[in-house]
Amino acid sequence: MRYWQEYLRDINMDEILNMQINDMAKVEFECSCGRKHFLDIDKIVMGQGVISRLPEILSDYVKEKIYILYDQNTYRAAGRKVKEVLEDADFQVKCTVLDSGDQILIPDEKAVGKMFMELEAGTGMIVAVGSGTLNDMAKYMSSRTKIPYTIVCTAPSMDGYASSGAPLMNGGRKISYTATLAYAIVGDTDVMKEAPMRMILAGYGDIIGKLTCLADWRLSHELTGEYYCETIVKLVQKAIQKVVDHRKGLEQRQEEAVRYLIEALTLTGVAMGLAGNSRPASGAEHMLSHYWEMKVIARGENPELHGIKVGIATPVIAEVFDEMQDLFPESVKEMAPSADQIKTLMKEAGAPIKPQEAGLDKDLFYRGILEGNTVRDRFSILDLAVKENRIERIARKITDEYYQE
Ligand SMILES: [Zn+2]
Ligand SMILES: [Zn+2]
């Protein structure tokens, strides 16, 4: 899948658990789960002021054309700086602004088409400056053109920086394209701590969602024999713990809190890469969130940020776990947080938990719990509740709690 790959570094399994994220690029290890894991990202560089290190990060491409992509918001946040830093170091750059400025950037035929039309022959590296949308567009172009891409993150808002899937809009529908991993991920905390608070809280919601997601993975392992990797789970849990420990610093935009958040979001992507699928990052809370999103898009409304919806869905799924406790083994109980615990973690960070805040009405909320398991073929607590004929009662109970007058 990779075309600029040269080598991977062999490490042993325990090392990965004690590594800093900046050292995880290009690792490979034999794991107790029986698989050999590898991570095909060349460079992960996170920290304060790291944008100024771009010339060094991209030094292999100094003789080639660099295609920089941003929208008007991300230009102000970091794009201008990226351009200046590279120009000052004698890189040949070509820049494209992908939005018209009067609305949010939608990754549809028009925007993707513009991105391709402005691509000059002889381009050696794509540099996207942005978060979810720009990253998705750039990784899609990278996979189709075989030109590597670098993402300069502008907000710690979601966990897709290190993942290979690219959801784009085509014909009015959201389609998930298989794309490629980044050559480099550059996360400058000076930029990200200034991101809109809603985006920071969305990133936090996406991380809190991993708590139910990992419990779902374990549940499926116990009940269906699905592949499970203890090392990957520990890796993600460690990263979540740091975010949770610093949750109260997010609203104050504390550098440390923001750094742990972007590290955990990137690491979840890394974990997906190691597992070979999104199991370590996406469980029933994501299905619920996707269900709501599809219905909202079908109504022609603008969906709320991904992580905000995941954050709202997580205590709901935790409550489904609470209701099903008698039916699963101790190992799952240890991993499944209670709904109250999750709600407290959300509230203490200042993150929303009311479905009404994401524009969800009572019926849509209820249907999501009832039919969320149909979103994808991946065993979760929702499937167990359906199988045991409890889902209707649970969905009704939770909905009534959330929508009581
Ligand atoms: Zn493993
Ligand atoms: Zn997510």
UniProtKB/TrEMBL annotation:
The keyword Membrane does not apply. Coiled coil: none annotated. The keyword Transmembrane helix does not apply. It holds the Pfam family Fe-ADH_2. Transmembrane segments: none annotated. It comes from the Bacteria. GO terms for biological process: phospholipid biosynthetic process. Keywords: Cytoplasm, Lipid biosynthesis, Lipid metabolism, Metal-binding, NAD, NADP, Oxidoreductase, Phospholipid biosynthesis, Phospholipid metabolism. One of its GO terms (molecular function) is oxidoreductase activity, acting on CH-OH group of donors. Gene3D superfamilies: 3.40.50.1970, Dehydroquinate synthase-like - alpha domain (1.20.1090.10). This is Glycerol-1-phosphate dehydrogenase [NAD(P)+]. The gene is egsA.
